[in-house]
Amino acid sequence: MEGIYFYWFAWMGWIFTTFLMKKTKQRLLYTAIILCSIMLSVINVQLLDMEVNSAFLFLLIISYMSFSIVKAKKQVYYFIASFIGALAYASFCLFELYDPVWILIDKRVMVSALILYVIFMLVKTYRMRIICSVISICQGDLFFSFVLRTLSFPYEIGAPSLLDIVAVTVLCISVWEGVLKATAYFDVYLLKWNKQKQTTYK
């Protein structure tokens, strides 16, 4: 069922930001983005004779706006990184259209893995990984839709399957960031424990 990953992980994210995160402006922002994405996911709009999902537009606009948090030189670099990710996404979709036999597992998982590989190779910070991955997926879907439009094929931009890919990708990046923080915490804890142990034996 297309869209199931998106709703499942979005509600999980909402529960985490609402009940487990500290009460900060960042928490409020994340919660609002998740709730707006869920509400807009059931609304489609017509743009230039194309059907576009509202959640797709919302996430793309929010991601573009988030580019303002970095300096101009880095904006260029992150734009290029996102463009490479978008080309990877569009290329995958075109190969699937040409020869779908080689899709051995769920397409959403394969595309997420491809985007994760590109973004982890090119982007180093957690926040920018999230932003660049969302832009890569959304722009890649736009590129793919333009190709299909030239062939007169009907296509919904930002379909539930794309939202699934966004959700899986963002979840994987967040889980990895959590693992890194947990590892760093335990390293500090073990270092303190070893120092206390040495002090005790002295």
- Assign a percent range to the helix content: over 70%
Total count of strands: 3
Query: Count of helices?
Result: 7
Distance between the termini: 63 Å
* Strand order, sheet with most strands: 1-2-3
Name the structural class: mainly alpha
Q: Classify the beta-strand content into a percent band.
A: under 5%
Order of helices and strands: HHEEHHHHEH
Radius of gyration equals 20 Å
Largest sheet: 3 strands, mixed
Q: How many domain units?
A: 1
The coarse overall form would be globular
Poorly predicted runs are none
Mean pLDDT score: 89
Structure, explained:
The chain is mostly helical. The chain has one domain (4-188). The chain has 7 helices and 3 strands. It has helices at 4-19, 25-40, 54-66, 72-98, 107-122, 126-150, 160-201; strands at residues 44-47, 50-53, 156-157. A 3-stranded mixed beta sheet has the order 1-2-3. Helix 1 (4-19) crosses helix 7. The protein starts with a helix and ends with a helix.
